[in-house]
Design brief:
mainly alpha; 69% helix
Length: 100
C-alpha cells in the first residue's frame, strides 16, 4: 500500500481504493484494537470500561488519598502532593493497574 505524499495530502485528495481495501482487509484488526482499549466485555476489566475506566478510578482514588490529612502529616509527602508530579503518579498507578 502506497502512502500519499505531502502534495497529495495538502491537496485534500482522498485515499486510493487500494488503501481503503487494505484497511478493510483484516476486519478482526478493529475488534482486537477495541478490546485492547476497552477490554473484553466478559471480563471485569471490560465491564469497568477498560483502560479509561481504570484511569477514572485511579484519578478519584489518588485525589482522595492526596487530600487525606493523615497522609499529608509527613512534610515530605505534603510537599510532593503540592507539586505537579501527581499527574505523572496518577498515570503510573493507572499503568500498574492495567498490568494487573
Amino acid at each position: 500500500v502506497k502512502v500519499k505524499d505531502v502534495g497529495a495530502a495538502a491537496a485534500g485528495k482522498m485515499l486510493s481504493r487500494e488503501a481503503i481495501a487494505a484497511r478493510h482487509a483484516a476486519p478482526g484488526a478493529l475488534v482486537a484494537a477495541r478490546k485492547r482499549c476497552l477490554g473484553d466485555p466478559r471480563t471485569l476489566y471490560g465491564r469497568g470500561g477498560g483502560i479509561f475506566g481504570l484511569a477514572r478510578l485511579s484519578d478519584a482514588l489518588m485525589d482522595a488519598w492526596m487530600s487525606d490529612p493523615a497522609l499529608n502529616a509527613n512534610a515530605k509527602v505534603a510537599k510532593w502532593h503540592e507539586q505537579q508530579q501527581k499527574y505523572g503518579f496518577k498515570f503510573l498507578v493507572t499503568q500498574i493497574m492495567g498490568y494487573l
